[in-house]
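Hey, can you fold this one?
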Amino acid sequence: MRTIVLILTLLASGNLYLLAQSDFDNLDTLKNRFEDQVTFTHQEKVFLDTDRSLYITGETIWISGYCTDASVHIPTDLSKVLNVELLDAEGQSIKQERIQLAHGFGKGQMFVSPDIKSGHYVLRAFTNWMKNFDPGFVFQKKLSIINPSVTNNQEVTEKPRITTRVDFFPEGGDMINGLTGKVAVRATDNFGRGVKLTGVVYDNDDLEVAKFSTSPQGYASFWLLPEQGKTYFARVAEGLEIKKYNLPAAKNTGVGMSVTGAGGDFKLTINTVENSPKPLYLIVHTRGVIQQILPLSMDSRKNLTVPLKNLSSGITHITLLDASFNPQCERLVFKYPENREFIKLDPGKPGYAKREKVRLNLSRTDTGTEETMARLSVSVYRSDELIPQKDNIIADLLCASDIRGMVSGLPALFDHENSSRTQEMDLVMLTHGWRRFRWADIKDGHKIKIKYPAEINGPILSGALQDMERFPVAIQISFHGKTSILNSLDIDPNGIFHFEVPTRVANDKVHFFDMRESLEPQHIRIDKPFNLGFETNLYPQLNFEEEMKPFLESLNTNIQLSQVYRDHNYINGVLPKTEVINTQFYGEPDFLYPLDDYTRFETVRDLFIEYIRSAVIRRKNKKLGFYVINEDPLPRSALMLIDGIPVLDPQFILDFDPLKVEKIGIINDRYYMGGAAFYGLINFTTYNGDFGGQEFPSYMIEKAYQGLQKSRTFYAPNYSSHQKLLKRIPDYRNTLYWNPDVRVEGDKAVTLEFYTADDNGTYQIEINGITQSGQLIHISKEIKVSEELP
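Sure. Predicted structure:
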């Protein structure tokens, strides 16, 4: 029945020509394989919003993280940890943070320390789950940092040599002899920036056949009818130098494609020559979700037009495959989202005086829809018209995250006032190709191998036991502290382990041990969460224009003054008071002894004799030990711990200073830990959770562990309630306001309030966000701050 409906649909559209039943069987096979390996394979996208894109050392990069389903951009609740790192011009990671995610959202910060040199940097972000897929899809954005401590007298690295590259991209992938086709041009320097130049195309007889001139972003195109037996090249003027570039060789057989149209209605024209592959299968998909899939036969004609209607917003891939599912040609097209505001921003008025209260009013514009909530991040920062536009969530998730390489001037292609943005974006589509899968895997039915588990509850500590023959049973793992963790480590036959660390763990050390053998540091390998193995985009040396110096100097002066008064203005944020969690791995003990409730004794032995009734110290078989007392007539030997660290030597406990112990918890029944069982458990918790300042037992192997960051709160002064206190404190904040978690729910309007500072100038209001259904939001407006009210 499905085949009959499809045949009728194709007949009505005029796209069916002499198709056999096997063509439809193959179509079903292609569709099933594609959906199984692409559509139904969950992938994630990340976007990081920051308060600014230009920083002075001593400031803080304020971060708001968004994690979405890669296909539909709905916030995903799969991953609970976001890895964020700052990379220098050599691709070396110089700052790393792990931010907690909840329902697809997270917030954090990164301090711009004085040891960071001036230059362009890359802020990169990804989840552990994303490491299973092509690392080219991790989030990357450029940040610029200025270190004013570097003077002209200090050694400055030599400026890198700028070189130019010109590439040619035939529409669909190949030039076909006898078929007129469009050829796109991309001119870039060695840092991926667009280059404006002109060129002339010649054949091998040195006859001119086409001309082109690239835009400031480095894009152009021309039409060419290649002829059999001829080759083609371009002479390009680069300053005073003329360079020669060869065009790709044309093929004698193959399929050509051309896409025309704009907005949402495109037309695909397919052209063939003799001996072209037959039949063909057309598959049109947006972010892995199939929009159209058709079998096509070219036996009765050499060209065919297929309408492409109702495409989803963003990048759509159009691919023609032969009967063996080998791609013959491919084309990307971009559909802009509807120009429909979900949130309206009203800054009250265009100008404000110094230290005046600003009220930003946010309200819904489409209250009739089913949308219930939007999550936003809001930044208000000192700006200048010479500073490049900050990245926005629409440009990144709809475009940058789905194509190869850096796109120069991408934010300008999402400016509604840019009249040439549609043509420029189409050239971007012609010169960039990317997909989240390989057609060879679709053809062969290969499944993606999952190596990195999703962190669905919290951070996962991964690594390997290097000596399986020596340690064939269980290895124990421990996080010490007032909130301690002790458990057996599950290890697979290859020695690999993954341990889910509860989010309540706050320390940066993890210990491993074996009850029978002494571990050595080389026996345990810990995998770094940032081991991505992918080269990031590199950017040229920092080199601002002369006219930008006054603005940059004012930013530097502002941060220097702010650092002087950091005890009052909390320029790097405030750690919020959080509830102290003292949950131990064993839960609530059967008996708890808070020692401050009793008279303190100087020895552990006296403590157990006078107060502890559920455990005793005894000598059995000439060995001293701690035993728990329960209904069993015979006391049972207990596992002894200090701050969750097992202590196998009873004498160490007896010699321990009880004045350092805050409480003692006792389990007086059997306690199971993986494959090991204990008759009881006694845990001494110290006041600082630091093992009383003692050295850890020699059988414990200590490894560094990077846990979740403690998120700080951005501070902004309130001049209405603290006017007298703050009157003499200079206020020169470069970022006036930052809020990573603004929620607009239902039809309720939201008002955000803050005060301006002591610096005149233009301030940019930037809002990025997303709704529960995946609608992307970006708003940008300006306000002025001056001595007097406008």
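DSSP finds ten helices and 47 strands in the chain. Let me know if you want another pass with a different chain boundary.
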